[in-house]
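Structural prep section.
Before we set up the soaks we want a predicted structure of the protein with UFG in place, mainly to decide which crystallisation condition to try first. Input record follows.
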Amino acid sequence: MNVLVTGGAGYIGSHACLRLLNDGHAVSVLDNFVNGHQQAIDVLQGLAEPGRLTFCEGDLRERDKVAALLEDRSIEVVMHFAALAEVGQSMGDPLLYHDNNFVGSLSLLQAMDRVGVRRLVFSSTCATYGEPDQTQIPIRETCPQRPINPYGASKLHVERLLADYAGSVPEFAYAALRYFNVAGSDPEGRIGEDHRPESHLIPICLQAALGKRDRMSIFGTDYPTPDGTCIRDYVHVVDLVDAHVHAMHALEPGDQRHYNIGIGKGHSVRECIDTAREVTGVDFEVVEAPRRPGDPPTLFACCDRIQEELGWTARYTDLTETVSTAWNWFSAHPNGYED
Ligand code: UFG
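Run finished without errors. Recording the tokens verbatim:
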């Protein structure tokens, strides 16, 4: 198939490109390099069969450019990863998030509408659920969506936009995948995670193990969880990408699919730290710090729906294995793509 990957130079998008190329698809990448890396594209170019990967630098809000790309490459399906995804940043600059994530997605959909591209797999997030009460955990797709930050709100607005559009265009089909905490890297270490600045737990542990940070902090040790630290569902990026491929192949005209993507169980911050110490063999320094605003105590997914409907299930269910693949990358690239 001819697939457009928006945000294909970023962490998750580049892993999607790798998988799609491996499966024999023709991949076109659109990325504005706000969070993406030219080096990721270079690696992918080096791995792709001639003519199988094309790259266009641009922004989703450049609608004419996007429409031309869709037409020129005869795109059949779009995997839409391009987004800003820092909760804290979104609290400080909601307009940036709604413009980039919502207006960007609207513009993409308008371009797709103009040239008749009818299939979309959208990166949504468990942040659309906000802070479900403990009786709603594990979280099902039917859990009320009440985001508590502009990032989650911007993604929920896109889900609603897609539903409205699908209601008026019967041939259109979409899947919104609500990611939990994505972690790990390509097991062969060819591409990986490189956020600047880094805010995610597992990369921060690994940077502490590398000595790139003097110490790391646990944000809150007084949560109502067994060890007092927050619990999250860490899904491997390779499994996440596999869910996209399942969704892409399943889409039929009129489909409006919504799936949680996780491993279906949670790990605490302390468990992640212990695992990172074990995998790296480094007893890096950890300090206890106050809670980070907006962190719900426990979030993990129920993934029965995607398993029942599409036959997808996570294969990386062992945190040690997930952290090991991340460590392959971080230990070989302490400075990310600069190495
Ligand atoms: N944490 C620490 N120390 C750190 C970094 C994180 O203790 O240095 C803790 C956080 O407080 C949280 C847990 O580790 O309890 C996981 O934090 P991350 O920042 O790695 O991930 P989040 O759960 O905050 O965020 C993820 C995604 C977001 C998504 C959100 C939905 O990264 O994109 O889940 O809740 F919106």
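Observations: The chain has eleven helices and 13 strands.
Flagged for discussion at group meeting.
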